[in-house]
Amino acid sequence: MNQLTRLIFILVLLSFIACSSPQPTLFGTWEHISEKSTDIVTWRYREIEVSITKDENRITILHNWLQKQQVAYMDSMSFVPGKEASPIPVTSAIWSENWYMGVLSKPGSQRMVSGDWVEHKRALTTRVVQTVEVSQGDAVIETLRDYRLDATGDTLTIVEKRSTRQTPITLVFEKI
User: Does domain 24-175 have CATH number 2.40.128.20?
Assistant: First the structure.
């Protein structure tokens, strides 16, 4: 009986340790690793830093576009996962994701942002619908992003699929 009690104690202790260990999380600040990401011209001039925070149920994702270690442009979106899309006012014509292609955001319009948790909160999928200005006039673009942690929780991979682009873009980040 003494051996059985000891075995049960060890199992309970191991269960407690496993449950109390912090789980890897998307929340925090992430630094872009350009050599592991899709090679597009943006990364040659600017680097991106991503911060993901949570306030109660609301998730905020902040994209800081850095040039010479200084913030050249900041973009953010905030939403409650699993709920209706949140309107985000567009105040600048700079569309940081395609600034080099002559595609501009439409000031005075709204981006509609929504998202959902997947894989027990180890991944987050966002959807952004917005109007942009191109040389032919206005266009509505939908962007889907999958934010996923690797098994260790040290690497964040964002896969971006856009309604106007056949090929997804992969961005890889490490936690700062």
Answer: yes
